[in-house]
Amino acid sequence: MPAYYSRWFFNRLKEGYVLVRNPMNPKRISRINLSPEVVDGFVFWTKNPAPMLKEIHKLKDYAYYFQVTITSYGKDIEENVPSKNDVVIPSFIELSKLIGSDRMIWRYDPIVLTEKYNVDYHVEYFAKMAKRLQGYTGKCVISFLDFYKNTEKNLRGLKLLPVTEKEMKLIGEKFSGIAEKYGIELASCCEGIDLSEFGIKHNSCIDGELFEKILGQKLNFKPDKNQRKGCGCIESIDIGAYNSCKNGCKYCYANYNPKLIDYNFSSHDENSPILFGEIKSDDIITERKFTSFKDNQIELT
Fold first, then answer.
1. Domain parsing of the chain, residue ranges
2. Whole-number Å distance between alpha carbons of 92 and 105
3. Residues forming beta bridges with residue 108, ordered by sequence position
4. Does residue 172 sit in helix, strand or coil?
5. Alpha-carbon distance 134 to 84, whole Å?
6. Residues 217, 44 contacting (CB under 8 angstroms)
7. What percent of the chain has pLDDT over 70?
8. Per-residue pLDDT tens for 224-263?
9. What pTM was estimated for this model as a whole?
10. Are the CB atoms for 136 and 182 separated by under 8 Å?
């Protein structure tokens, strides 16, 4: 959304609501209130935050943070991602200066291995990126590639090599030393392997404790029961959509159908309450009921 639909998002903030089509039942649409009274915050995932920089002030009434994926892959894996050196890293740094390093999470994931992108390659470029991002982020999240049926076709031709437990630990050890050198906490995203011996903690991408820190108050949040085993995320609502991103990343489980991506992109209207297409007469729109997690009770000490 930050890279391709930021204008639409800010229009929805101005209007105070958004419509989200159910991917499992497209005729059903949820109307979601976006007022600061009920929205405790936003988490933005992106490989390019640059389009949001000029309008970031419009989020002044909300808590939020960014997770920006910056990897060492070229066009063979991340076809349409802008230059890391010239666009992504500079915009990361500029955004960090505007909102603070505690709200800028760097993601180096997923880690895939090929003859070209071997362990030594990842270690070399992780170190180069960590050096440039020093002081502009406090945390980096890593993960290793998970295979999904809908990504098999896109991954063909890359000649992927298996990532063994030994290699995971080697990468964890090397990355941990680099991260420590540059003052960056290292965490893993929903990984089955335990890398705690290298000081790598399990991460919560939608992080209740981070939101408490940003908001400066207690939240009565609940864990999200709909996520994978090992996920530490709290309950949230996704206002994005599958097959909506034009980055063309071969490993992406959420954007795997190029024809559908093109169709969705062409049917986008930045002034519409819904991300793609039009509301039809037989669509069923219902209000999504939810409340703030904010604990407004005064604690006595």
1. 6-282
2. 10
3. 142
4. helix
5. 16
6. no
7. 96
8. 777 666 677 889 999 999 999 999 999 998 988 999 999 9
9. 0.92
10. no
